Amino acid sequence: MSLDKPTDKPHDRLAEVVSDAMAAVNSLIRSRMASEHAPRIPEVTAHLVEAGGKRLRPMLTLATAKMCGYDGDDHIKLAATVEFIHTATLLHDDVVDESEKRRGRPTANLLWDNKSSVLVGDYLFARSFQLMTETNSIRVLRILSNAAATIAEGEVLQLTAAQDLATTEAIYLQVVRGKTAALFSAATEVGGVIAGMDDAKVQALFDYGDALGIAFQIVDDLLDYWGSDATGKNVGDDFRERKLTLPVIKAVAMADDEEHAFWKRTIAKGKQEDGDLEHAIDLLNKHGTLEATRAEANAWIAKARKALAYLPDHPIKDMLDDLADYVVARVN
User: Fold this and answer.
1) Who's near 242: CB < 8 A, 6+ residues apart?
2) pTM of the full predicted structure?
3) Among 49, 81, 92, 260, which residue carries the largest CB count within 10 Å?
4) What is the per-residue pLDDT across 186-240, written as a single tens digit (0 to 9) for each?
5) What architecture does CATH give domain 6-329?
6) Which residues make beta-bridge pairs with 106?
């Protein structure tokens, strides 16, 4: 079957397996995003939460808990926690990036204002901490609170590194670990923790989520130069927003004086002209940085799949393996 057929997409198969639990998560999200005194909170939150999206992160928590044999209901609270943290970061990101669209719809900051987006994001962070404490697990609280701090740190680091041509691949990886991988790894790790898995298996779940999240972000950055309507990614958005992503960081490192001057003008100074995007893509192809970036994404997926080897055999384990492949399928 083709990956284009919805029933053959790994995240859709995962969604089927955890559909009952996901319905409970959605119900919990709706009840906890309510506010008796500030009606704008559910208005803003509903706009983003109901916009769709794969709900991949909370799904990973539900799936890993089920795979590890958990039979309680704390995984519902933790999956909702993960989604609240993710939604809060999206609200804040759109303000920082001055975005006008999210998932094909106007952003909350455009429909309301920046103040509403920031404050509602803060509210969701607070709600997420309320939910995680209800599991009465200090270990779970430590994992998710550390993830929230790492996400915020990654966003601040990206703010200072985004247009700095001195940004290295190591700094890029640190940003990616913060803004994307931290929540993936926390989502998978807590599923094993509440199921009572031993430390080696919990570490394997963390390693899987970490590698999957890094590959996910690298592919997303790569699609900015290789995207199409089919991928849902507009070519050149990151370039126009002057974001130093991995393909560009690699090209800057290999640039001659003339090429470095081009990157300085377009990225560092933001003085972009007609034809600059096409020239940027030509430079990326000249130095092979798109192919090199794809190779790195595949290397991280190999690490994710290797981590799964330490986990018990289960149909969900096979789905997680397929999911890893699917993350890079768009650029392979």
Assistant:
1) 162, 163, 266, 267, 268, 270
2) 0.89
3) 81
4) 999 999 999 999 999 999 999 999 999 999 999 999 998 886 544 455 678 889 8
5) Orthogonal Bundle (1.10)
6) 101
pLDDT in tens, 99-155: 666 656 766 666 567 777 788 888 888 889 999 899 999 999 999 999 999 998 888
- CA dist 318 and 162 (Å) reads 37
Q: Long-range contacts made by residues 31-34, C-beta under 8 angstroms, separation at least 24?
A: 32/80, 32/84, 32/127, 32/130, 32/131, 33/84, 33/124, 33/127
Identify which of 176, 186, 209 has the alpha carbon closest to the alpha carbon of residue 327: 209
Residues 6+ apart with CB under 8 A from 293: 218, 221, 222, 246, 247, 250
Q: In whole angstroms, give the CA distance from residue 225 to residue 33.
A: 37
- Amino acid identity of residue 163, one-letter, is Q
Q: How confident is the model at residue 238, as a pLDDT?
A: 87
CA distance linking residue 63 with residue 192, whole number of Å:
10
For residue 256, what are its two tokens?
Answer: 């001659």
First CA to last CA distance, the chain:
17
At 238, the amino acid letter reads D
Q: How long is the chain?
A: 332
DSSP 56: H
CA separation (Å) from 116 to 30, 36, 69, 110?
19, 16, 41, 10
